[in-house]
Automatic annotation (TrEMBL):
This is YcjX family protein. It comes from the Bacteria.
């Protein structure tokens, strides 16, 4: 029962908020990227650094001492799994092993109590910002274009892609099996399942192959979340040329119905309930891996990034226009794992990501959002040093390679530290984006997987924090203005 005084207070509060042009003190931050891009590590490190007062000199509110504290609160959406922050941090900190990667959507609310920088702001704002962090697989975003496609189109496009030289060998098994069935035969669950399994295996092979091909929809065949095995996921394209009417009860009719069910019951609700409610977005990309694999892989990453950014395009031409209630106003494209490079190369990596982002923004015709790019390491697993070779001091990175990693003929046990010459990214990044120049212009960066690092002391020496590279720059772009 609210008393009269309570109601008066609420009314006053509302008035004050209106007077200050007050926006609800919460922000929904989407974190995405293709699998293994570094989403789980990013969220864990971001939250840990804010809660424990990490070294964040480029995060203005923290640097000027205006953050009183940051703490976890109950998340607003009861039906979304919680991001398992404590488990992930425990893995990183106590066991020094990498946490389980993102497999489905999850959410975490981090609340920051702060003092506004301006007197005006201090008068009206409650000095509290809740950040609802929404972690979800980038694969799911790539389903958006399906909403505008019929099953017949999906079949034709899948066949055309499967026949491309880059994919033909990976698709051969599925294509052979699918071509052998008669779409007009009676619908049969076992046939549907066998084809769905083979199609999913082909999509997975594209992802795992060293050609580093980007993902094809349907995203849930790769990242099923909690829908594994459900009929809405038990479908595949039928590559045959379609002629005439579809016979009810046929295999084709069954596949078509399931494709439509996937769009209606999986893809649409995901966009409506989650994506359209985001205010800010970070897209993590594994640019180093693509650089290592050569220009074709970089071009492929660019294509995937373009498709991802297209989902955030507001207004006409976006399939979600009628669903959109708010719009994303800031997007950060971040290459993580920069700790695999010496710091002299961080700016080069950043320039490459910026170019990648610029090209993807142009191709996706994305407008209305501010887009920035950064090269960072959410969790810095290496330190820097020099090794004397002859008369020269060479820059190296030092870390503990994961058990089983090899350099030359040495195999590591997961306990021993070693120095690695990481290699250099090129100064002139133009040729990298020239997919036609098939000569790999990158003197390949040596890519050893390291164990997570030990904690280091915070700036005030009072707590132990996770080391990072430029995480503070990312935070400033994503949240800084809302803490002004
Ligand atoms: P997700 O699939 O996007 O959730 O990816 P994860 O966050 O699980 O990261 C995948 C893997 O990338 C981890 O297991 C680490 O090996 C590596 N990784 C992620 N972030 C970093 C980082 O900042 N530095 C280093 N050295 N490795 C990282």
């Amino acid at each position: 029962l609210t008393t009269y005084a309570d109601e008066a207070l609420i009314a006053l509060d509302t008035l004050a908020s209106r007077a200050a042009g007050f926006v609800a003190p919460n922000i929904r931050l989407g974190v995405t990227g293709l699998s293994r891009a570094g989403k789980t590590v990013f969220i864990s490190s971001l939250v840990h650094n804010l809660i424990h007062g990490g070294r964040l000199p480029l995060f203005e509110a923290q640097k000027t001492g205006r953050i009183a504290r940051a703490f976890l609160e109950e998340q607003p959406d009861d039906a979304v799994p919680r991001f398992q922050y404590e488990e992930h941090v425990d893995a990183l900190v106590t066991e020094r092993r990498w946490p389980e990667s993102t497999r489905a959507i999850s959410e975490l609310r981090l609340t920051i109590a702060y003092e506004s920088a301006s007197a005006w702001g201090r008068m009206f704002s409650r000095g509290q910002l809740s950040v609802d962090i929404v972690d979800y697989p980038g694969e799911w975003l790539l389903d958006l274009p399906l909403l505008g496609k019929s099953y017949a189109t999906f079949c034709r496009e899948s066949r055309e892609l499967a026949e491309l030289p880059a994919r033909a060998d990976l698709a051969a098994d599925w294509l052979a099996a699918a071509s052998a069935v008669d779409p007009e035969a009676d619908a049969d669950e076992m046939t549907a399942k066998a084809l769905a399994d083979r199609f999913a295996a082909y999509l997975r092979a594209c992802k795992e192959d060293s050609r580093a091909l980007s993902t094809l929809p349907p995203g849930r065949l790769l990242m099923p979340g909690d829908l594994d095995g459900s009929p809405a996921l038990t479908f595949a394209p039928l590559p045959q040329e379609k002629t005439g009417r579809t016979r009810p009860g046929s295999l084709y009719a069954m596949m078509e119905r399931r494709f439509e069910a996937y769009k209606t019951h999986v893809v649409k609700p995901f966009f409506r309930d989650h994506i359209t409610r985001l205010d800010r977005q970070i897209v993590l990309v594994d640019a180093l891996q693509a650089l290592n694999a050569g220009p074709a892989a970089l071009a492929d990453l660019e294509r995937a990034l373009t498709d991802i950014l297209s989902c955030f395009r507001p207004g006409r031409g976006n399939l979600l226009t009628d669903l959109v209630t708010r719009r994303i106003d800031r997007i950060l494209v971040a290459a993580t794992k920069a700790d695999h490079l010496h710091h002299e190369n961080h700016d080069r990596l950043q320039a490459i990501v910026r170019r990648l982002a610029d090209r993807a923004v142009a191709k996706a015709r994305l407008t209305g959002a501010q887009v920035d790019a950064v090269a960072m390491a959410a969790l810095r697993a290496t330190r820097e040093g020099t090794v004397r070779q002859g008369r020269e001091d060479l820059p190296v990175i030092i870390g503990t390679p994961l058990a089983g990693e090899t350099i030359g003929d040495e195999t590591f046990d997961g306990e021993t530290e070693t120095a690695v010459f990481p290699g250099d990214l090129p100064d002139n990044i133009g040729p990298l984006f020239d997919a036609a120049a098939d000569t790999a212009p990158v003197e390949t960066v040596r890519f050893v997987r390291f164990r997570p690092p030990r904690l280091e002391r915070s700036a005030d020496g009072l707590s132990l924090v996770l080391p990072h590279i430029r995480l503070d720059r990312a935070l400033q772009f994503l949240l800084g203005d809302r803490l002004a």
